[in-house]
Amino acid sequence: MLTGSQIRAARGLLGWTSERLAEASGVHYASISRAEQHDGPPPVRASTLVAVKAALETGGVVFIEDGVNRPGGVGVRMRENVT
């Protein structure tokens, strides 16, 4: 599950404004702003999160989910060889 913290961090890694993410994802700026206000899962539609995640991944971000083999919890990083 994508979190508001991950969206903020991913945008920061890419150097994108909220407006840029709105444009890239096709999601209204207000929905992105609302999602980013929450550290955990944001109260937005699943389709909104799918579009936001896809746009950020296209930009070069990799989302790290919490799991047994990934100590440290959720996060984001840049994909290798992003041009």
Account of the 3D structure:
With about 80 residues, the protein is mainly alpha-helical. It contains four helices and two strands. It has helices at about 5-15, 20-25, 30-35, 45-60, and strands spanning about 60-65, 75-80. It has a two-stranded antiparallel ribbon with strand order 1-2. The longest helix has 14 residues, at about 45-60. The protein is globular, with a radius of gyration of 12 Å.
- Helix percent band: 40-55%
Poorly predicted parts: none
Q: Separation of termini?
A: 27 Å
Shape: globular
* H-E order: HHHHEE
Number of helices: 4
The counted number of beta strands is 2
Mean pLDDT: 90
Structural classification? mainly alpha
Q: Main beta sheet: strand number and arrangement?
A: 2 strands, antiparallel
Neighbour order of strands in the largest sheet: 1-2
What percent strand? 5-15%
Instruction: Return Rg in Å.
Output: 12 Å
Secondary-structure map:
Elements: H1 4-14, H2 18-25, H3 29-36, H4 46-59, E1 61-64, E2 75-78
Helix pairs in contact: 1-4, 2-4
Structure characteristics:
single chain; 83 residues; mainly alpha; two-stranded antiparallel ribbon; 2 strands
In short:
This protein has helices spanning 4-14, 18-25, 29-36, 46-59, and strands at residues 61-64, 75-78. It has 83 residues and is mainly alpha-helical.
